[in-house]
Amino acid sequence: MQKDITYHQPIIKYHDGHFIEQTDNIATEFPLTLYVNQQEFATIVCSPTHLKELVLGFLASEGVIFRQADVKDIHLDDSKGFCHITLNRDIEQHYGHYTKRMISSCCGKSRQFYFVNDAATSKVSMTTTKITADEIFRMMKALQEESTDFKQTGGLHNAAISDGKDFYIHRSDIGRHNALDKLFGYCIQQRIPIRDKVLIFSGRISSEILIKASKIGVGIILSKSAPTDLAIRLADDLNITAVGFIRNQSFNIYSHSERII
To answer: According to its UniProt record, which residues of this chain constitute the active site (predicted)?
Structure first.
């Protein structure tokens, strides 16, 4: 049975000179350990929703799988926090040697392997998609309206994929990478081509997020927050349009502005 993304915690709130007993909504933090071909592969600290999507998206972004057909079986035991994945091939033959890793929700541990396979799994965008300013504002508004769990807890990242018009799917997670992996996994499950899609994101566009977007294959990333300098340089190199500070009928275009019309 899938766990809840939030739980109710009794707290004491101080407000206007008074202590008040009440209940607060807290984001659930859930460790999920992945075993690939019976070998321990990684532990992801995540929100306990859409876990199969998360597993598929994570393995695809790491270059372990390329399509749904690469996976023979996924057995998820979310009561104990384990997921056993059997591939249709030997991971060692096609991808080299892996060791156990802890991937935290804040992504702080990701730097230990961040540059190992980025060159092999990142993609230079070939998208020809173009979007208007009105579509940018509409998509960001839709993301914020869908972010009900964030409004309750203040502790989740939100992301969505759209074609700029009709297609729209939203996912939340305590880990910003995880939210993107869930979207990637959903598209793999549904066999949805991603190259012409737009990624809408609630948080800062860091270099890690830009790399993750390139691994997914999108050509446009929209955020209500700021990018980092390295993210901008990577976006320029990988032919990705990065748009930030989308708020109050204003935004900044940091790279490949030709896609915004």
So the answer is: 107 (cysteine persulfide intermediate)
